[in-house]
């Protein structure tokens, strides 16, 4: 440390850069390591409140319904006799008949929207404390009622299970999430922390060589270098942990889309703090040992700038098995074979992705040096020749600048594949989404408002035919009031439809439980009147509906002008149709919840919990991409600033020889641009193949993400332009004789 502080402002700036870089890296590391703790705390509180059947003086029944795009959980309880009762966490006692205890968020909704009062019958007597809630936005209620009002109820035994079956992220998806976050955050983070530990490598090597030449032993020389790196890394680690704690307090109050938590959930555990405070200095010590070995063993060559050894090519060999596995799955898909399923792909694909990412890092230096040597031999431009010769002699300095950005693009491609796969699993494969609401739960004004909800393409009204309360099955028919244009907009194909006629919808390719025959008559209920009989017509319209559609085969299509008036709402259903992308589905559900908060909505073919889980995973992957971007940009800024300080002597020498400022800037841009172009090109190709292999082995309908490829190319181009522009101001054409070496 005395050598560091006595070396002047340059050494102090280097120490500051190392500490700041380590702080940023440790803050990102703490964020990634704390995500599982946040999810585990959420699931633990959810499991602790789960009612369990048993023996007590209470009955219970659970209801889990959507309120907009959020799940609303209600537990109705009824006392059947005197005595003590089990108490869930977060409340002091179970509510009596006519009372209700709700979460703070649900209490806000009830006070802001009086229409929702029917969701929670009874007088509010308290709120649930955080111990009994999954997160700050949880919609949960305990409602007291009479035993006679609870049908199909169970006897309550206790609260709490060992493991909740309503986990915020399913275990299979959680494993994929951990692996993806590791690729897009932890891999670049290790590179970044290594970069921070090797700042000013050339000047430090010269200083260490001088110490070695005046008599310091090899071991002590290595200790001097490691000591500086370890102290800087430890100071940065402390700052990073403190910075993360402050960010957690803010983000816990803001939250992420679909994911909210209490500040205590995000505070790092002792093991996480130990990893941050000890892991970063340990990595700095290892890197310091290797980076200073040449100066300790061969100080004369360092002081006299001896010829450097070319970078080793063994690291590039990691690309061979990685691309072999990834490419093999892609070839199988092209040949029409389906390699999905089985346990082999679940091991081979992640392993191949890791090998490919490592090959990109270790193989970039020899490939760049080889390409620079070839380009320098044919270059006719002085700036290009200077840049290529410098890249040939010292490819490592340029690679430290661009490696983080290359891994960011590689991770972005993998993230796209994960999102595509999860999107296929969590929603219908059809391009349209239907929502069914009972007409008896809606007023006339609400029906008109629901048809105008943003995202709704069309709305349809359907009715079930009347049937007697018989024990045996009585076949019936459904009636849909719609036009031919509405039929065409809601199905995959419809031919032969004629406006102004009652027709039967028929899908010849689908089996039906009962196919009404022409001439059969079915009764439909009418409000306060006799039943209306409708005859099945001979005219049929051939359709190919989407799965689980309101236009099932055998349905009667009745135009609005011929629909019987005042059909009974008790037998009617309002069906809304929208696009099936998750953003539109959430927007429509939120719109329905705002207009008809007490109505029960059935999103056909999807589960609200699955939609909420997809939102959480998207948010966490977005956080991972932001952290990866922070790491990549921080590595670029720190490396470029350090490189500018290291090259001041070379820039001064070139300026004294007559090099112009424009020439020096072009040299700087080309030096950064060459490895960045090579790295980004390799990242796009290997990343897209890795994404495709993941989709192929996932068994989904999408194997090749052609839509995501232009986005990757645009991101890579943006990274290249930004890096080139950021490199220009780092060159100062300032002649300072002190920067010339005086060996």
Structure notes:
The chain has 21 helices and 18 strands. It has 743 residues and is α+β, with helices and mostly antiparallel strands. The strands form 3 sheets. Strands 11-15-12-16-10-9-17-8-18 form a 9-stranded mixed sheet. Helix 2 (9-48) packs antiparallel against helix 18.
Characteristic terms for this protein:
53% helix; seven-stranded mixed β-sheet; alpha+beta
What is the topology?
Elements: H1 2-6, H2 9-48, E1 51-53, E2 58-67, E3 70-79, E4 99-102, H3 104-112, E5 123-127, E6 139-144, E7 154-159, H4 171-197, H5 201-213, H6 218-254, H7 263-266, H8 270-291, H9 293-297, H10 299-303, H11 319-334, H12 344-378, H13 382-393, H14 395-426, E8 432-438, H15 444-450, E9 456-464, E10 478-481, H16 484-490, E11 493-495, E12 503-506, E13 521-524, E14 532-535, E15 540-544, E16 556-558, E17 572-579, H17 582-595, E18 601-603, H18 608-646, H19 648-656, H20 661-698, H21 708-727
Parallel strand pairs: 3-6, 4-5, 10-16, 12-15
Antiparallel strand pairs: 1-7, 2-3, 2-7, 4-6, 8-17, 8-18, 9-10, 9-17, 11-15, 12-16, 13-14
Helix pairs in contact: 2-4, 2-6, 2-8, 2-18, 4-8, 4-14, 4-18, 5-6, 6-8, 11-12, 11-20, 12-13, 12-14, 12-20, 13-14, 13-20, 14-18, 14-20, 14-21, 20-21
Instruction: Kindly name the structural category.
Output: alpha+beta
Chain-averaged pLDDT = 77
Using only CA atoms, what is the Rg? 34 Å
Overall, the morphology is: elongated
Instruction: Tally the helices.
Output: 21
Strand line-up across the major sheet: 11-15-12-16-10-9-17-8-18
Distance between the termini: 25 Å
Strand content: 5-15%
For the secondary structure, the number of strands is: 18
**Roughly what percent helix?**
40-55%
Regions with pLDDT < 50 over 5+ consecutive residues?
none
Biggest β-sheet: count, sense, barrel? 9 strands, mixed
């Amino acid at each position: 440390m005395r050598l560091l502080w006595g070396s002047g402002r340059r050494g102090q700036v280097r120490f500051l850069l190392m500490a700041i870089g380590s702080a940023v890296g440790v803050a990102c590391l703490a964020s990634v390591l704390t995500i599982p703790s946040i999810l585990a705390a959420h699931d633990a509180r959810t499991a602790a409140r789960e009612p369990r059947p048993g023996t007590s003086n209470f009955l219970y029944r659970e209801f889990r319904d959507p309120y907009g795009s959020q799940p609303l959980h209600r537990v109705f309880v009824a006392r059947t006799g005197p005595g003590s009762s089990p108490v869930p966490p977060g409340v002091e006692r179970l509510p009596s008949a006519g009372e209700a205890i709700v979460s703070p968020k649900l209490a806000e909704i009830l006070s802001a929207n009086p229409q929702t009062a029917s969701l929670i019958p009874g007088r509010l007597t308290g709120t649930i404390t955080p111990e009994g809630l999954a997160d700050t936005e949880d919609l949960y209620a305990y409602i007291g009622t009479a035993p006679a009002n609870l049908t199909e109820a169970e006897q309550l035994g206790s609260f709490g299970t060992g493991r909740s079956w309503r986990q915020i992220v399913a275990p299979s998806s959680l494993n994929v999430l951990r692996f993806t976050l590791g690729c897009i955050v932890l891999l670049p983070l290790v590179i970044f922390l290594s970069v921070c530990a090797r700042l000013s490598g050339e000047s430090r090597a010269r200083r260490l060589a001088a110490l070695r030449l005046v008599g310091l032993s090899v071991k002590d020389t290595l200790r001097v270098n490691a000591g500086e790196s370890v102290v800087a890394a430890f100071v940065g680690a402390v700052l990073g942990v403190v910075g993360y704690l402050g960010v957690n307090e803010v983000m816990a109050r803001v939250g992420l889309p679909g994911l909210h938590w209490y500040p205590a959930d995000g505070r790092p555990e002792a093991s996480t703090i130990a990893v941050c405070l000890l892991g970063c200095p340990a990595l700095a010590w290892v890197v310091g040992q290797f980076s200073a070995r040449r100066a300790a063993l061969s100080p004369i060559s360092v002081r006299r700038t001896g010829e450097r050894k070319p970078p080793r090519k063994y690291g590039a060999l990691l690309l061979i098995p990685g691309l072999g596995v990834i490419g093999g799955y892609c070839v199988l898909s092209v040949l029409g074979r389906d390699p999905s399923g089985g346990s082999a792909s679940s091991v081979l694909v992640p392993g191949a992705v890791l090998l490919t990412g490592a090959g990109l890092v270790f193989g970039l230096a020899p490939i760049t040096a080889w390409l620079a040597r070839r380009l320098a031999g044919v270059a006719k431009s002085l700036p290009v020749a200077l840049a290529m010769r410098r890249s040939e002699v010292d490819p490592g300095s340029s690679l430290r600048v661009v490696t983080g950005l290359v891994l960011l693009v590689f991770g972005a491609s993998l993230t796209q594949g994960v999102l595509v796969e999860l999107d296929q699993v969590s929603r219908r494969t059809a391009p349209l989404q239907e929502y069914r609401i009972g007409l008896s739960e809606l007023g006339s004004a609400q029906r008109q408002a629901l048809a105008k909800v943003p995202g709704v393409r069309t709305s349809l009204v359907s009715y079930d035919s009347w049937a007697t309360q018989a024990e045996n099955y009585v076949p019936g028919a459904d009636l849909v009031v719609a036009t031919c244009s509405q039929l065409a907009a809601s199905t995959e194909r419809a031919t032969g439809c004629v406006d102004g006629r009652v027709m039967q919808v028929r899908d010849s390719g689908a089996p039906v439980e009962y196919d009404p025959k022409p001439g059969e008559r079915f009764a439909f209920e009418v409000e306060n009147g006799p039943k209306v009989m409708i005859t099945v017509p001979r005219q049929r319209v051939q359709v190919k509906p989407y799965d689980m559609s309101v236009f099932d085969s055998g349905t009667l299509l009745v135009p609005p002008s011929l629909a019987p008036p005042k059909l009974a709402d008790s037998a009617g259903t309002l069906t809304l149709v929208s696009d099936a992308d998750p953003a539109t589905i959430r927007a429509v559900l939120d719109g329905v919840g705002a207009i008809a908060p007490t109505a029960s909505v059935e999103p056909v073919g999807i589960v609200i919990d699955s939609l909420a889980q997809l939102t959480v995973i998207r948010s966490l992957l977005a956080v991972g991409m932001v952290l990866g971007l922070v790491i990549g940009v921080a590595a670029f800024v720190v490396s470029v600033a350090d490189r500018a300080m290291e090259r001041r002597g070379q820039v001064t020498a070139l300026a004294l020889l007559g090099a112009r400022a424009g020439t020096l800037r072009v040299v700087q841009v080309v030096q950064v641009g060459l490895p960045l172009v090579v790295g980004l090109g390799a990242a796009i190709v290997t990343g897209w193949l890795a994404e495709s292999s993941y989709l192929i082995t996932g068994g989904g309908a999408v194997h090749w993400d052609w839509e995501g490829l232009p986005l990757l190319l645009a991101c890579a181009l943006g990274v290249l332009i930004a890096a080139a522009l950021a490199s220009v101001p780092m060159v100062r054409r300032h002649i300072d004789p002190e920067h010339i070496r005086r060996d």
